[in-house]
């Protein structure tokens, strides 16, 4: 939808957009069905549209491994959406192996990239990536976009916790990098008065 808005506004050229991810294709089917059925969760301005809000103009779905492989050497400018857990697995890995060495390409990483993943290595300026038992040079431009993260921020998590029918005996903050986890545990303690802890790696708790 964001690409559709940018292309409609003329801020991006209209080029083919390939979706190459079984998970993303399954999610797209869910959203299209919700749009078709007029689900109340769909925003009114989207529901009022007569066109497919998920098609920027040239949307193409890569359903098979053969179609995916052909995208490793595109003959003209295009956008390739290949969802994965921060480039740790899935079809995006073989795309990176073929496309990362080319300076003409752009690798756009939407959302947070955890330390230790290929996505984070790319954001941190890695000039090589290890995959398939060897190393691949990174010559493509790499850009991160945090605005598309699906995770709630600290304010959102605090609001969700406040709505709980009763306080938790102990709140374990187990997600996020250590400084962020510690800061969230501190806010839960100060603002909610809950016992909040950041457990150590491999720590066991008996309940």
Give structural notes.
- This protein is of the alpha/beta class and 207 residues long.
- The protein has two domains: 2-148, Rossmann fold, CATH 3.40.50.10890; 154-197.
- 34% of the residues lie in helices and 15% in strands.
- It contains eight helices and nine strands.
- It has helices at 2-8, 22-36, 44-47, 65-70, 91-99, 118-123, 154-162, 178-192; strands at 17-19, 59-61, 79-81, 106-110, 128-131, 134-137, 141-145, 171-172, 196-197.
- A three-stranded parallel beta sheet has the order 2-1-3, with no helix packed on it. Strands 4-7 form a two-stranded parallel sheet.
Provide a compact summary of the structure.
The chain is α/β, with parallel strands linked by helices. It folds into two domains: 2-148, Rossmann fold (3-Layer(aba) Sandwich), CATH 3.40.50.10890; 154-197. The chain has helices at 2-8, 22-36, 44-47, 65-70, 91-99, 118-123, 154-162, 178-192; strands at 17-19, 59-61, 79-81, 106-110, 128-131, 134-137, 141-145, 171-172, 196-197.
Distance between the termini: 45 Å
- Spans of at least 5 consecutive residues whose pLDDT stays below 50 are none
Alpha plus pi helix count: 8
Rg, please?
A: 21 Å
Instruction: Kindly estimate the percentage of residues that lie in beta strands according to DSSP.
Output: 5-15%
Mean pLDDT: 91
Structural class: alpha/beta
Under the CATH scheme, the architecture of the largest domain is 3-Layer(aba) Sandwich
């Amino acid at each position: 939808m964001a690409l559709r808005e940018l292309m409609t506004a003329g801020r991006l050229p209209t080029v083919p957009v390939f979706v190459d991810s079984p998970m993303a294709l399954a999610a797209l089917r869910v959203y299209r069905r919700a749009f078709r059925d007029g689900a109340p969760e769909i925003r009114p301005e989207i529901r009022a549209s007569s066109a497919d809000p998920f098609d920027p103009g040239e949307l193409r779905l890569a359903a098979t491994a053969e179609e995916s492989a052909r995208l490793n050497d595109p003959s003209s400018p295009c956008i390739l959406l290949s969802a994965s857990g921060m480039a740790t697995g899935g079809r995006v890995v073989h795309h990176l192996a073929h496309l990362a060495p080319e300076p003409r390409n752009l690798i756009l990483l939407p959302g947070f990239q955890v330390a230790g993943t290929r996505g984070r290595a790319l954001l941190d300026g890695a000039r090589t990536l290890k995959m398939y038992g060897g190393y691949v040079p990174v010559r493509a431009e790499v850009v991160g976009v945090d605005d598309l993260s699906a995770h709630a921020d600290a304010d959102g998590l605090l609001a969700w916790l406040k709505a709980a029918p009763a306080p938790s005996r102990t709140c374990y903050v187990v997600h996020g990098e250590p400084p962020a986890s510690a800061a969230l545990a501190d806010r839960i303690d100060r603002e909610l008065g809950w016992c909040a802890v950041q457990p150590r790696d491999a720590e066991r708790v008996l309940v």
